[in-house]
């Protein structure tokens, strides 16, 4: 069986790695690039998927929530958050897929003609046949557009890298003027700090707050909804192309990898992908969506301040660790 995967990020590369053991898998990656991303991922993914620990830039045993100039420490019950550089992490995952037999081709998906994929390689159009087509091509998925599927719900994020602000731990800023509807953030990243917020105005406010002068780049991240279509006949979607970013925290890397595992297992065992994903994550995503809705209201400050108490810290970390 021929499986063609569009997109070689964590979702696409993991799907390729797991499926190439049994099927003829081709992985299409448009280019080598360092995706704008905080790079935070649950440490346990390294054990679950036998990934190389040398990819970890930083291990975090705590994070900080900041609100009204008050910083609240949240212990993570050990080194449970890893920070990775996406350029290296994604390349490593693609290399692991190749080790299992997947063919990696650099090209750009252009559309579907006569149930075959059209890929542009070195400015020439090449036709690829497939039995199964997997879209792992991000929040602005061109494969979704080619199938006339509704686009992934998304929000804009402004992001930059700076040496002007240093932090040892991940910091989340919940003042609305800094974080808009969601939150702003600062993550350690080697010699740099990655900072971001949801819109230009709040990003500018964050820069003033951190005493940083930097020009941001804008990019979209999914805002998960329950009705997102993740399969159409023999075409499947995974990762950002399926909106599989958990609400409120916007953690995407771990869920992209785990969702790819669910998809691969569903294909191997002829299971219903949507049903299998729902069994694993639907209730968690729905609960996080409800918390996200509360975070957008006047109750945000109360929610943050409750984290001064151990019961709330434990609740939040247990929710995050088991999700």
The secondary structure category is alpha/beta
String of helices and strands: EHEEHEEEEHEEEEEHEEHEEHEEEHHHH
Largest sheet: 7 strands, mixed
How much helix is in the residues?
Answer: 25-40%
Radius of gyration: 20 Å
Which sequence of strands runs across the widest sheet? 6-5-14-15-16-13-17
Mean pLDDT: 95
Strand runs, count: 19
Can you tell me the residue ranges where pLDDT is under 50 for at least 5 consecutive residues? none
Q: How far do the termini sit from each other?
A: 33 Å
Q: What's the overall geometry?
A: globular
> Helical segment tally?
10
Q: DSSP strand (E) fraction?
A: 25-35%
From the structure above, extract its key features.
323 residues; 30% strand; seven-stranded mixed β-sheet; alpha/beta
Provide structural commentary.
With 323 residues, this protein is α/β, with parallel strands linked by helices. The protein is 33% helix and 30% strand. Strands 6-5-14-15-16-13-17 form a 7-stranded mixed β-sheet. Strands 8-2-1-12-19-18 form a 6-stranded mixed β-sheet, with helices on one face. It has a 3-stranded antiparallel β-sheet with strand order 3-7-4. Helix 1 (10-19) runs parallel beside helix 3 and helix 1 (10-19) packs parallel to helix 7. The two termini are 33 Å apart. The model has no long low-confidence stretch (mean pLDDT 95).
């Amino acid at each position: 069986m021929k499986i063609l995967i569009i997109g070689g990020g964590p979702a696409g590369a993991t799907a390729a790695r797991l499926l190439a053991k049994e099927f003829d898998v081709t992985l299409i990656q448009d280019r080598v690039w360092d995706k704008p991303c905080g790079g935070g991922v649950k440490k346990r993914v390294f054990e679950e998927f036998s990934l190389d620990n040398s990819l970890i830039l930083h291990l975090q045993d705590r994070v900080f929530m900041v609100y009204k100039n008050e910083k609240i420490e949240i212990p993570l019950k050990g080194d449970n958050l890893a920070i990775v550089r996406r350029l290296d992490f994604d390349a490593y995952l693609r290399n692991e897929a190749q080790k299992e037999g997947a063919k990696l081709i650099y090209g750009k998906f252009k559309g579907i003609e006569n149930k075959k994929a059209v890929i542009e390689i070195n400015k020439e159009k090449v036709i690829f046949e497939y039995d199964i087509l997997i879209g792992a091509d991000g929040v602005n998925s061109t494969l979704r557009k080619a199938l006339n599927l509704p686009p992934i719900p998304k929000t804009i994020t402004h992001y930059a890298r700076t040496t002007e602000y240093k932090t040892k731990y991940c910091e989340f800023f919940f003042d609305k003027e800094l974080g808009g509807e969601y939150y702003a953030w600062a993550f350690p990243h080697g010699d740099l700090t990655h900072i971001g917020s949801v819109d230009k105005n709040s990003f500018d406010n964050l820069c003033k707050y951190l005493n940083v002068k930097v020009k941001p780049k804008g990019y979209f991240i999914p805002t998960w909804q329950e009705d997102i279509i993740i399969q159409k006949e023999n075409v499947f979607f995974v990762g950002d192309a399926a909106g599989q970013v958990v609400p409120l925290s916007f953690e995407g890397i771990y869920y992209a990898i785990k969702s790819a595992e669910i998809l691969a297992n569903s294909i191997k065992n002829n299971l219903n992908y949507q049903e299998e994903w729902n069994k694993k994550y639907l209730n968690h995503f729905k609960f996080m969506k409800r918390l996200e809705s509360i975070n957008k209201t006047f109750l945000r400050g109360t929610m943050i301040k409750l984290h001064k108490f151990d019961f709330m810290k434990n609740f939040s970390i247990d929710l995050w660790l088991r999700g």
